[in-house]
Amino acid sequence: MSEVTAEPVSDVPYDPTGEISRLLKLEDRRESAVAQIAVWIAEGIVVGRLHPGRDLNSVELAGRFNSSRTPVREALMLLESEGLVEIKARKRPRVASFPSERVREIYFVRRRLLALVGELAAQRATDDDIALLGDRLARMERAVEAGDVDEYFWCHVDTQGHLQRIASNQILADILDSLALRTLVLRHTSLGQGERLRESFKDQVRIHEALAARDSELAAMLLSRATQAALDAILEMIESTL
Amino acid sequence: MSEVTAEPVSDVPYDPTGEISRLLKLEDRRESAVAQIAVWIAEGIVVGRLHPGRDLNSVELAGRFNSSRTPVREALMLLESEGLVEIKARKRPRVASFPSERVREIYFVRRRLLALVGELAAQRATDDDIALLGDRLARMERAVEAGDVDEYFWCHVDTQGHLQRIASNQILADILDSLALRTLVLRHTSLGQGERLRESFKDQVRIHEALAARDSELAAMLLSRATQAALDAILEMIESTL
DNA sequence: TATCGATCAAGTGTCGACACAAGTGGACCC
DNA sequence: GGGTCCACTTGTGTCGACACTTGATCGATA
After folding, report:
1. To the nearest whole angstrom, how far is the Cα of B89 from the nearest Cα of chain A?
2. Which CATH superfamily is domain A99-240 in?
3. What is the Cα–Cα distance from A204 to A209, expressed in whole angstroms?
4. What does UniProt give as the signal peptide span (chains A, B) (predicted)?
5. Model pLDDT for residues A66-117, shown as the tens digit of each residue
């Protein structure tokens, strides 16, 4: 779809906003106040502008967006359902926090589901799909060479989206999108640590090869292992900053 | 928790409302307008009072609940995030429909995740947990003898909740709760078909045995197969009424 | 008679206002 | 000087109102 519409395929840097509104299922009604507020908050959480525990009272936010509290409240509810925000009755909403135990839980599930995506994607990928993934891979490689963590990160996120589309299981994709949102912060920061960027890219290359060979078992295994490696990097990062 | 508080353990029939508000994570703020409206709609969908495609415009609902449209809209958003309601920008919300392809997708994921729950639960169950599950099993047996589909059904739902608690993975539980909500209607009606009730109970017995034996591999396999059987029954039902 | 456009009721998205609850700070007491 | 109670401020949950959009109805036109 995207390669047909307009863009000259490359060099257009990724727009986090676009990816986030995709993950939040807000691509239609992108102009509505609710969507703008939700995406702004989600992006803030993902890029680390809004830290866990940060107060998200609706009055302040309404002021910031020159809107009433109604759309703010709806945006916060939406983000709560995605696990990014904690809302307790009659208390002020806060940016959700992720204790390492919760991170482990998320990755325990995420790992299995991504393996499933790999399995299905390897079975169902067309040659065009593989070619498209190849483009993304090349782009990630350029980002790694340039040491551009942001570019790599969002391209990685986009690639996962494509993988999910290829796997053709909407529910599976929705669940993974939801889990992805909660882990974006951690994944983003952990990518900047040491050799993590290059290691992650190596995993991507292997996964692409398995998919191109239509080896579903291998693809599942590689995705599972790559996810585990991502978790390990995140946990190491958390422990060290503790 | 529940056996300590008040109830005389048995004979108190299950309250669908309670189970549904648990699945919707509305157990606190149960008195708020949003929660009441959301639970009422969800229950309507689950017991078949509100059919797929049914118009859920906020004006009518607000009238029905003597409330303004604000809490109605929030309730509808909540239900949308659980997949029970479809909301398109500037269109009236509708009860979501589940084409058989979507049902297959849900069960494809649900099956793997329930296997995971079985695996974890078998590893982590205490003797008290097994005893509690035994109580539930006995209760289900009475329901089967009496041919009380409703009682069996809600006890089954409750039992799954306990299993998830034993498995001790909050994210996993949340995802399964969300998937459960979408499939409650189908599961409920399919239980009334032919020998489905007795077959389902037999599966429950085997699963309990595996858990009691702390055989995680077997528990995972049995849960996977029982889930597949449930799907088959549902698909057969859908095809036949088509 | 069928097609198209104007007209109009119905519904959505957003707003500002209100009562009540929660948090905050100071006055008061020991 | 440290702890407790009470007023005041801040924020939540809900309300009724408004402009704009959508879809439906009905008449005009070919």
Report:
1. 6
2. GntR ligand-binding domain-like (1.20.120.530)
3. 9
4. none
5. 999 999 999 999 999 999 999 999 999 999 999 999 999 999 999 999 999 9
